[in-house]
Amino acid sequence: MLQRPNAEEHAPFFAAYIGQVPEGDLIQILENQQERVHALFAGLSEEKAMSRYAPGKWSLKEVLGHITDTERVMSYRLLRVARGDQTALPGFDENVFVDGAAFDRRSMTELLEEFDTVRSATLKLIRGIQQEAWARVGTVSNHSTSARALAFVIAGHERHHGHVVRERYLK
Question: Residue 137: helix, strand or coil by DSSP?
């Protein structure tokens, strides 16, 4: 079982995501999240999928697209760090990603299929990482970050947005 990263293994801003990951097998948690994501987003009407809880906030389609895009970015970072690549990896602007994606023009079914594809690839990557690679550290957004911290960020990021969806969109 993959141990939770300590505070020295990641930037302070990742702590909020890592802290949301429950105790247990990270692979099982990630697998269970696929079901949770479908329970949240599948079956939403087009009107509800386009809803925003406040002006200027993302629609539910954009939230799901953001979760997927961020997982792609974090998985790429995880791959680079776990393989021992010491190239500094830059941050990214989540709003630029959402603005450039046109998620609202796509169906929720398509967005869920894309999430499933990305999550499947993430799980295959995580299952293939050798034990000694989890402690490897690289530079992400100007902070030393371990491979295992990035895996926990992926799980915690989905949990964070799941809470936001349930509390602000689906009340």
Answer: strand
Q: Map residue 146 onto helix, strand or coil.
A: strand
- What separation in angstroms does the CA of 160 have from each of 105, 131, 151, 156? 24, 27, 15, 6
CA–CA separation, 160 vs 29, rounded Å?
A: 14
Closest CA to 50 of 2, 111, 134, 126: 111
Domains annotated on the chain, with CATH: 7-13+25-169 (1.20.120.450)
pLDDT values of the chain reduced to their tens digit, one per residue, 171 residues: 899 999 999 999 999 999 999 999 999 999 999 999 999 999 999 999 999 999 999 999 999 999 999 999 999 999 999 999 999 999 999 999 999 999 999 999 999 999 999 999 999 999 999 999 999 999 999 999 999 999 999 999 999 999 999 999 998
Q: Which residues contact 95 (CB under 8 A, 6 or more apart)?
A: none
The neighbouring-strand residues paired with 137 are 146
- The span from the CA of 147 to the CA of 152, in Å, is 9
Give CA–CA dist 166/163, Å, rounded: 5
Going by the DSSP 8-state scheme, the letter that residue 140 receives in this structure is E
